[in-house]
Amino acid sequence: MKVTLNKNIKLNSAQAYLRFQKEELRKDIQEYLNGKHFEPLIETRIKDYLKNIGVFDEHYQLTKFGNAVKETGKMFVSEEGKYQIWFTQSDSFFKNIVFYFRRLQPNAKDEIRNQISLDRKGHFLLPTDENKYTKLNLVSDEVFGNVNNSNDQIHFSWVWENLEKSHYIFSGQLGNKDRAANVKNEAIPSDKDIQKIISEILPEWDNDKKRYCIRFDRLSDEVRKTFEDKNFASKWNGFEVLIQNLPLMPYDKEDAKKWRNWLLNEVLKKEYLSISGFEKTAMELNKKEALATFSLDIPKTKDFIEEPTSKKVFWHLTAPMDLNPNTKITKNGN
Fold first, then answer.
1. FRET pair for 127, CA 20 to 30 Å: which of 66, 102, 207, 214?
2. What does the pLDDT look like over 72-112, one tens digit per residue?
3. How far apart are the first and last CA of the chain?
4. What is the DSSP string of 185-198?
């Protein structure tokens, strides 16, 4: 199953003074944590520095954060100044976060006019030709700046792979033509809980069976045969949602009977079945993954004879009884 959520994101722009933490790769610190040593005086200073930034605790032992730095080399480094920022305001998914920034020359004559509401965590520096993708956390308690008129818009796709992992892809252009930043549409790993969100998109999703519970009468013949919707479309939280190869199961036991009986009728349209063949086919259908949970009984042959869906079904079920009840005959004679 593959899930793709698409939406356009409107970005505001402003010149603002702020302080934030930017995720950076610090190979030097990673090498030190993995065994590289220095002369005693330098080593003492390094340990104190790492304690001050939370890599070591009061006893100079690695913290949880320190262990992550040791493994990945990534850590948040503080930065502050004047920036041109592109950000969302009350977006249905991202709320109030920075997506991109560009450093500006400070000016003592700057006149600050607006307070800008931004969340504390979850900010981005989107990947462009000028920079790599970077995570940001805001340090400033309040952000002030001058909001510009901006019509910038980027496209956002969120791609899920079998409910196991997901990634973001952004595309579009930021800024004016003189100095535009073209966003690279590269995959950015997401840590969102997609197991929870699938139940918001599909309220009838069965988390145990990993299938969508659906009414039999809503389905096409092809979907009924495969227990799978090749292209299921929906909407959620401002997104257009496309689910490819959505696994399905009956909504309840009554729908499970309808579904199983329909499949039996499809078999009977194509071949002759004796009573034993009929029961064997019904048992095989009952064991299908989407039906097994309902523990269906074997249907009575006479019920299908008395209420056939077509003359062909009636003939393919009754003829073997007249000829040889222990024989299964196909239309090809095999």
1. 66
2. 999 888 889 999 999 999 999 999 999 999 999 888 777 77
3. 38
4. ---EEE---HHHHH
Average pLDDT rounded to a whole number, residues 329-334? 40
pLDDT tens, position by position, 3-60: 999 999 999 999 999 899 888 899 999 999 999 988 889 999 999 999 998 999 999 9
3-class DSSP state of 180: coil
CA 180, 185, 187 angle in degrees (round to 5)?
A: 140
- Using CA atoms, how far apart are residues 284 and 72, in angstroms rounded to an integer? 51
Q: What is the pTM of this model?
A: 0.81
pLDDT band at 307 (very low <50, low <70, confident <90, very high): low
- Residues 320/329, Cβ–Cβ less than 8 Å: yes
Q: What is the pLDDT of residues 272-299, one digit of tens each?
A: 777 788 889 999 999 999 999 999 999 8
Cα dihedral sign for 272, 275, 276, 280?
positive
Q: Of 238, 258, 266, 241, give the one whose Cα is nearest residue 299.
A: 258
Question: What's the angle, vertex CA 169, arms to CA 167 and CA 171, rounded to 5?
Answer: 170
C-alpha torsion sign, points 95, 9, 160, 204: positive
d(C-alpha 11, C-alpha 8), whole Å: 10
